[in-house]
């Protein structure tokens, strides 16, 4: 008998077929509390779970006694209570490699967009405000040769360092849990403590997951330590930054701009003060959102789940201590 899998995000047709060759698939529309109630029978028999976002915690585990593997179509898994999964012996899989270059592209795009005021000025052109030769009030700031600070030197941080150093002649500083010899060797990246990173970066680029340690890591005090006129870019998770404190730092002019793909609350509320600031570029969490990369993520997540349910995991496992 094929194992039952609850699928809570649609898959491209060919990937759905690939999954169905190995599993009996029940598709639901998201992991909402209502859906947990409505599809209780499906969860009761589910050995696998596949999707992205939604809360995977004790309340879900309580109604899914047969669950053996959860496969996220994402690199981040801050929506998953990993300790609870560990207690129940449930394997957690994710997609850490396939989106690296695409997210790094977006980070570099946010650096350029904020520095050169692309969104603000393009909007002014469309609004018919370009009536004569432009003056300094429409100028931006340079990117090339400015210092790029990376908070979190994982795969994405590395890909960003490559772009900044190789493409834009930017000196690279970084802070991470450990030194990264390859980044230092290939991109001349300099390790520094957080205070120095804040004080010396012209562009502070955050590429961190959300954990207890990173929650509000960039708070009021840290924002005050940032170089005046610097730009903050966040494509990691919104809650790494204290959003009200960031809004203040932008409103007072201490920071030049912010490029944000992630927010404490997503979707971002339409009345957020961030949206009223012309120096904020706010995106709808599109770090990995290209056709090719989203397909690649779904592909890897399907393969990850099939591997986990058949005891053949070789990579992409968050809790490998559970593999026997
Ligand atoms: C995107 O934010 C992801 O975690 O894949």
Structural notes for this entry:
The chain is built from 13 helices and twelve strands. It is an alpha/beta fold. Helix 4 (58-63) links the parallel strand 3 and strand 4. The mean pLDDT is 98. Glyoxylic acid is lined by residues 74-76, 99, 287-288. Glyoxylic acid binds next to loops.
Radius of gyration: 22 Å
Low-confidence runs: none
Biggest beta sheet summary: 7 strands, parallel
Spatial order of strands in the largest sheet? 8-7-6-9-10-11-12
Tell me the span between the first and last alpha carbons. Answer: 22 Å
What percent strand? Answer: 15-25%
* Principal-axis shape: elongated
If helices are DSSP runs of H or I spanning 4 or more residues, what is the number of helices? Answer: 13
Q: Fraction of residues in helices?
A: 25-40%
Chain-averaged pLDDT = 98
The counted number of beta strands is: 12
The hetero molecules present are: glyoxylic acid
Task: Assign the structural class, choosing from mainly alpha, mainly beta, alpha/beta, alpha+beta, or little secondary structure.
Answer: alpha/beta
Order of helices and strands: EHEHHEHEHEHHEHEHEHEHEHEEH
